[in-house]
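Chapter summary example.
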Amino acid sequence: MKLQPTAVISFALFLITLAVNLSMPLFRPYAELAGFNNGQLSLVLSAYILGMLPSYVFLGGISDRIGRKPVLIFSLFLAFCSNLIITIFPSIYALIFARFFQGVALALSMGTGTAYISELLHSDASASVRAANATSMATAIGFSGGAFMTSIALLIHFSYLPFTYFIAVGITILGLLLTFFLPKLPPIGGSLVRLPYFPQGSFPINVSIAICWATTGVVIAIIPTQLATFGLTTYAGFCLVLINWTGGFLQPVIRKRFAPKTSLKLGFAIIPFGFGLVILGSYLGVLPIVLMGTACIGLAAYGFSYQGGLALIADLGGEQKARAVSGYMFFGYVGFGIPAVLLGFLADSIGIVPSLIVFEIAIIVLSLYLYFTFDKRKK
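The structure predicted for these 379 residues follows.
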């Protein structure tokens, strides 16, 4: 049976995103072994953003210049390196290098993979839509799949070196071998650097995705520590699974049934509600409430707010649509990384739950401001 090139590209994107959260359920245990506090752990996790943002901005057009295939292979190789590092040295220190490689790999591969599939389907009138759908599905499964696999493995038998690490190394080698057989398309040329563009009126939309992704970053970096106080560390990975699944898998429904403006404004309401549930569940030590909250967060962060904002930004961007979308994603990635670090150090000073309440107040105020600012601007 001959594998379709589009299936191989989707598989490669799945493997790259799988690596990103493969060790997520063990972030807190690794930090405890090394004696790291919440702020220090957040800094370690931010290595992901340190690798991603410069690569995203300054190497955003590299696959246009040298071709899709070599960039995809290199990205997958970096994902393999990150898996290998954490497998050989399962510790918080190895995680610093692994997260950096994951950030670079993701920054280089996302646009490359989508463009690669679209160009292979050039004869299809709906090539761009099919490419976007394939990328969304592969990455949604990948982002959550790594955490899900490791969480299940830890429930079966807790180990600082779960068997899922070896599985990830093995299937990534398989993916690398398959990508060498992909067709080589000629480069289309263009600028290597893709500086973000922020069109007039885009500020509330860009800030909305920053708030949403900041909330997911806080859940990943801080909530596992609070769950650990109730002996629920091994369940932390399921929070990330729900964040990705509820938003990612419902994207087609949201695109079809909700106008972009309505979708974005729904996100303003869902995020503080979901995070409030996370705080309540974390305080009481009731896992189902925490999981309900993370599902709501995912519904906004990767569903309503993301889809609505993306459509509105693309429209505002006009001929500079690609750069406007880059600006939108830039805000999202900054939001994902920086607030979690600040909140980590705040948690060390005043406690986890009080720091989460401070963050909840901040996102309520910002969500209300953005809701009414956006509404007034549209009128």
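To summarize the output: The chain has two domains: 1-194, 197-379.
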